[in-house]
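Reagents: none. Just compute today. PAT family beta-lactamase induction signal transducer AmpG.
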Amino acid sequence: MEKNSPGTSRIKPILWISTLYFAMGMPFVTVNAVSGIMYKDMGISDSKIAFWTALILFSWTLKPLWSPFLEIYKTKKFFVVFTQFAIGILFALIALSLPLPGFFRYSIALFAVVAFCGATHDIAADGTYINFLTNKEQAQYIGWQGAFYNLAKIISSGILVYFAGVLEKTEGVTHAWMMIMGVYALLFFALAAYHYFILPKENKGEQTSRKTAGNVRKELLEVITSFFTKRNIIGSVLFIILYRFAEGFAIKIAPLFFKAPRSSGGLGLSTSDIGLIYGTYGSGAFILGSVLAGYFISARGLKRSLIWLCAAFNIPFVVYALLAYYQPVSLLPVSIAVIIEYFGYGFGFVGLILYMMQQIAPGKHKTAHYAFATGIMNLGVMIPGMFSGMISDWVGYKIFFIWVLIATVPAFIITWLVPFPYPEQQKEQ
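Predicted 3D structure written out:
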């Protein structure tokens, strides 16, 4: 594999890393978080929202099963552009489905297809990052990669949610969210056009020739077998599942808790308030955390940094327990809580991504194995997310967020014991 082909030397990596990982983050954040706020506005129950929006995340877990096809047919650039254009069309269809009587089943089905396209896009995008950058460049840009991935979270669950709240006052809930889904559609059409011209592409001589269906199945079996026979793979898999286990509970319920009436234990915030807090204070805190983490790891090394990154990622969930207990009326303590949580999220998430790239992915099927790792990681978020609504309805928000803190304990244990099968200082290609 050639890391610096002539096609990539003409374009600075940051010009495509930034937009590529922004485009990667948008579908996941929208399916996982923004759709829940939209459905809450439209009268759907917490348990129904949490279950279905978590279930359709399964595409991000199953994506390794079709990742070999992407390595065999076409190029990574082709799949990036194609899936971005398809996601644009799907968001336009979601917008059209919202006024219909059975809007929930139609829109959730379309979100499921968005999830499939988003998962496919992830494989091609990560493959581009891994194949066109050296290990040193991967570490150098990992903070920026994480920052722009989660900048999508800030813009999607922050700025766009804020404008949805503003539009609700003049256009009504349904038409407001139709317009926001239309914005998503236009954004992905623009991203597809941009990446068509700027994204690096494999040289024709490096592309794999077409194979028969039998060869594809053989290739997939080889990919799966070689993944699960890697050194210390059980410990590595447990790590990537448990690192985000508590987040799986918190991420589904936090925005619903913010919006729930105070009589139900929530904070009674408006849609605009939620979008404003996430899109202003949260955005700056997250980007700062992500970028600083990249330099922190680069200076200390991943192995020495990982337990600190785990602490930064998991400990800030305590702010939700405090908010649920005190139920502050002012936006100031809520904003401070979001700043703390988002800074820790940005700082800690970078370590998990770099671990998967450098300690799980290396080998013959680097792109496919990284897809396996990210798929398993999302399983650790999806399963607790599916049941988070039922638990919060059962015990209430106060007890629920105490449970989230208890759920962080396995992350600390496995991070302390996590294996490092590959030396950090590898020869640069």
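Confidence is low (pLDDT under 50) at residues 4-10, 204-209.
Action item: order primers for follow-up constructs.
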